[in-house]
Design goal:
The protein is of the alpha+beta class. It is built from seven helices and 15 strands. Helix content is about 40%, strand content about 30%. The protein starts with a strand and ends with a strand.
């Protein structure tokens, strides 16, 4: 089974939509000028965003401080519950209590510093101009690609991989890169469009939708509403200390072309949109 939204991160890190598997499904693409302008503004915004990020060593130190401090305080709370308030008179307890508080407080101070720097950068004229330029480019791209009024923005799970010993391996801390694309139907095709191209697959090629009950990981979160708010709260999405999201029931939307089996992977909260277009019902993996 080939995931058409998969790409070798060592070859296509900046252009995941240019992977070989996707090329045969391209219906139309933006011109070279628009593409170059998109790359330039993306590079510029990434440079601006680096201004608020702490150095890697500080980020790691912050995480270690919060984890160690939290573990220290949890142990002390358990000790307090088992032995009573008399432990407060033990100097060692007081030392470890102070240490735990200092570690947690120090970690959150680093969080506050990064948050403050982020707010300053996002309020800068350079950053605000970049955001407005991105909006202008997005509108120009949508007009160039002739996207219809009847379209829905959905998340797609791209699979970034590295090749090791001739096999595809997960490239990092999470399995899937979450990207937002427009979903619509055009001339008997299921179409997905990003800022650079429209991809189309004949509706008659789709065979089934299979739900994987296992938990998977992805980043970043693309929706305007938080993952733990309605309408996403019921999907029990979790966020770990590394900024990675975890969810169960990712769905494989499968089709066959020229006797080759293909799939695209979607998060569970997007299943209903594909079911409506494909007139298929997503089934649990064990039902296959």
């Amino acid at each position: 089974m080939k995931n058409i939204f998969s790409f070798n991160i060592e070859e296509n890190a900046n252009r995941p939509s240019s992977s070989e598997l996707l090329k045969e499904f391209v219906l139309r693409e933006i011109d070279e000028d628009l593409s170059q302008n998109q790359e330039k503004i993306t590079d510029k915004m990434e440079e601006l965003e680096k201004r608020w990020s702490l150095p890697i060593w500080l980020t790691i130190l912050r995480l270690v401080m919060v984890c160690l401090g939290a573990m220290d305080l949890c142990c002390l709370i358990m000790l307090l519950m088992s032995r009573g308030i008399g432990v407060f008179f033990n100097p060692i307890y007081s030392v470890f209590l102070a240490l735990g508080i200092l570690l947690v407080a120090g970690g959150f101070i680093f969080f506050a510093i990064e948050s403050s720097r982020k707010k300053r950068v996002e309020a800068s004229p350079e950053y605000l101009e970049g955001i407005e330029y991105i909006k202008s480019l997005t509108k120009s791209s949508e007009e160039y690609l002739q996207l219809p009024e009847e379209k829905t923005k959905v998340d797609i799970f791209y699979y970034p991989y590295i090749m090791r010993d001739g096999k595809k391996r997960d490239s990092g801390a999470f399995k899937y890169l979450c990207q937002s694309l427009y979903l619509f139907v055009e001339d008997g095709k299921l179409c997905l469009a990003d800022s650079g191209a429209v991809f189309g697959i004949d509706l008659k090629l789709f065979r089934r939708m299979i739900i994987d009950p296992k938990k998977t990981s992805f980043a970043p979160w693309q929706k305007d509403v938080s993952f733990n708010k309605e309408p996403y709260k019921d999907y029990k999405i979790s966020l770990d200390n590394y900024g990675i999201y975890h969810v169960r029931n990712a769905c494989s939307v499968q089709f066959t072309k020229d006797e080759e089996r293909h799939e695209l992977i979607i998060p569970p909260y997007e299943i209903k949109h594909f079911e409506a277009i494909l007139n298929l019902k997503a089934k649990e993996a064990e039902e296959d």
